[in-house]
Amino acid sequence: MRRGIGAIGLVAALSVVSACSAVGVHTDPKNGYLPEGVTEESVLVENLWIWSWVAALAVGVLVWGLMLWCIVAYRKRKDDDGSLPVQLQYNVPLEILYTVVPMFMVGALFFYTEQAQSQLIDVSQEPDVTVNVVGKQWSWDFNYVEADVHEAGHMAPLDGEAGHEKNLPTLYLPKGERVEFILTSRDVIHSFWVPAFLEKMDVNPGIVNRFQVVPSQTGTFQGKCAELCGAYHAQMLFNVKIVEPAEYEAHMQELRDKGQTGLLGNDLNREDINQRDRDLVPDLTDDEETN
């Protein structure tokens, strides 16, 4: 009884933790409580997630049913003489069943996972927009390749005050157009994660990773680094703004008017720490800059 209560408490605690991690992200029971996907590719993740749970629950119901059947059918009765039931060394059909069936289940899960993953990382189509996302300690730069303009990000302050999200680096994307992300890093391993995309990808130094999405819904969404990358990893935040194509072009022109033309380099330069970042983190020492 105590173990049962403890298990229920553990499940409840995990549920609370999961709910806390989803603060600010809209979830829907129709897609398995995942964040609402805002790209055409999101449905691939949703379908894989939902049907994996359906299969897992089906197996669970079967196993629980067999357990309950054994408990009821082979319970101790009043007329039992205490002797053990007939002991069998093996049962070939049963052993084949519980060996072969799980292999088919794992094979099916692998097949559909690989199928979805192959489509998610497919970059064979010609993109309408190419964005070079540059990870750095501890912010992001965005190079809009076709427009030949850039946005340089600064580390987000986490001082408990509201309104800082307005000053975060903002990645603009046009709705309905195919966008290819080219992910590069200036220093250590980062991870480019937009929860509303339902996918993320590592940003590795010396390696170029790519993936494509087609934004399907306008709005402003959160982005962050999902790989522990140093002391101020938690402050590596950014916004994603999906807008109509006309507004996207207007923003590109706005960057040109600000003089943010050309593309920022991907070379490593740890000594070039923005003064604004120094002001946001007064205790940032020279040793932390170069380590």
TrEMBL record:
Annotated Cytochrome oxidase subunit II copper A binding domain residues: 126-254
Catalysed reaction, written as an equation: 4 Fe(II)-[cytochrome c] + O2 + 8 H(+)(in) = 4 Fe(III)-[cytochrome c] + 2 H2O + 4 H(+)(out)
TM ranges: 48-72, 92-112
Keyword flag Glycoprotein: no
CDD domains the UniProt entry points to: CuRO_HCO_II_like_5
EC number: 7.1.1.9
Protein name: cytochrome-c oxidase
Keyword Membrane: yes
Natural source organism: Janibacter alittae
One Pfam family, short name: COX2
Biological function: Subunits I and II form the functional core of the enzyme complex. Electrons originating in cytochrome c are transferred via heme a and Cu(A) to the binuclear center formed by heme a3 and Cu(B).
Biased composition range(s): Basic and acidic residues: 268-281
Family note: Belongs to the cytochrome c oxidase subunit 2 family.
Protein's cellular compartments: Membrane
Region forming the signal peptide: 1-22
Membrane topology: Multi-pass membrane protein
